[in-house]
Write a structure and sequence with these properties.
The chain is α/β, with parallel strands linked by helices and about 350 residues long. The protein has twelve helices and ten strands. Helix content is about 40%, strand content about 15%. The radius of gyration is 18 Å and the shape is globular.
Length: about 350
């Protein structure tokens, strides 16, 4: 597990990263509408009268991460190169966006990342580097590469980046356009590094009204609770990370990540789901809606199925954030009885 330590002092290195502003969010909405269509919002009455699923799994890369990648690529100055690290979905988003916006990219992925994601990345026009046994090690290596002056690169974190967070916030605008403005709205989404929930929560604060208060609930994997630990402590620190099917929600945070303060300020609640909850949600989505979900993608659904989130009031939208799971692993999960 990486401590993101400085090579000279052994003290965890912190980058100066600014929070997104309202202007950043507005710029992201403009650019993303040029490249992406709104993803479907479908009813899930089995979970509640007004419960819906937001199908970010229908994005061209199979995950919401492409939103933040487009926003980040579009904000770079001409001649810049992106370096990033990812559990897979952010890397796929960066590769997709870089090809369309003409921004070269280097992507560092842990050697233990999903085989499905690594195979997909290998087919894309990026420099792909496999490094480390977990996401923490891959992220530390990516940060080190970006500091190399010969690369002329900008590090784009999957979560600790204002443009990425702004890009993820655009998901909420699509939800609002499709839901009743006279009822309370609850949005439930997975939390790994916190970029998605930080962006949605900040945008929710801007758009909430007396007639339609917007509540945001973040869902962690019980095996990886770095964000909630940091929110309680008021700062990032390493926590034990266990094995989880939700690889996109797994790992410690970059020191000083801006998502921690944003979630503490804007997000209404953080809950956690077990591995059993996640496996059950993957099966439920396939059985009831014919939908493929990776572990992280099923987290919001798992929270409602497991009774961690009340879905009885107003409109409730569960973000199905991604579908990129290895077929053999999916088959094994589906073959296991509830």
């Amino acid at each position: 597990m990486s401590s993101f330590a400085s090579s000279t002092t052994g003290v965890p290195a912190r980058r100066a990263v600014s929070r997104p502003t309202s202007t950043t969010l507005e710029r992201a909405r403009r650019i993303i509408s040029r490249y992406l269509e709104a993803t479907p919002l479908i009813a899930a009455p089995e979970l509640g009268e007004r419960v819906s699923l937001k199908l970010e799994s229908f994005q061209p890369t199979g995950s919401f991460k492409v939103r933040g990648a487009i926003a980040a690529c579009s904000a770079l100055t001409e001649g810049s190169r992106i370096v990033t690290a990812s559990a897979g979905n952010h890397a796929l988003g960066i590769a997709w966006a870089s090809a369309r916006l003409g921004v070269p990219a280097t992507v560092v992925v842990a050697e233990t990342a999903s085989a499905a994601k690594r195979e997909a990345l290998a087919k894309l026009p990026i420099e792909l580097i496999l490094h480390g046994e977990d996401y923490d090690a891959a992220e530390a290596y990516g940060l080190a590469l970006a500091r190399d002056p010969e690369r002329h690169a900008t590090y784009v974190s999957p979560y600790n980046d204002p443009e990425v967070i702004a890009g993820q916030s655009t998901l909420l605008d699509e939800i609002i356009a499709r839901t009743d403005g006279n009822r309370p709205l609850t949005v439930v989404a997975g939390v790994g590094g916190g970029g998605l929930v930080a962006g949605i929560s900040m945008r929710a604060r801007e758009l909430s009204t007396a007639a339609r208060p917007i509540r945001v609930v973040g869902v962690e994997a019980e095996a990886s609770r770095a964000v909630s630990a940091a929110v309680r402590a008021g700062d990032t620190h390493e926590v034990p990370i266990g094995e989880t099917i939700a690889d996109g929600l797994s790992g410690n945070l970059e020191p000083g990540s801006i998502t921690v303060g944003m979630i503490a300020e804007y997000t209404d609640e953080l809950v956690a789901v077990t591995e059993s909850d996640l496996y059950g949600a993957i099966r439920w989505l396939a059985r009831n809606h014919g939908l493929v979900a990776e572990g992280a993608g099923a987290a919001a659904t798992a929270a409602v199925l497991g009774g961690k989130v009340d879905a009885s009031e107003g409109d409730v939208v569960l973000v199905l954030s991604g579908r990129n799971i290895a077929l053999l692993r999916l088959a094994a999960i589906l073959a296991t009885p509830d």
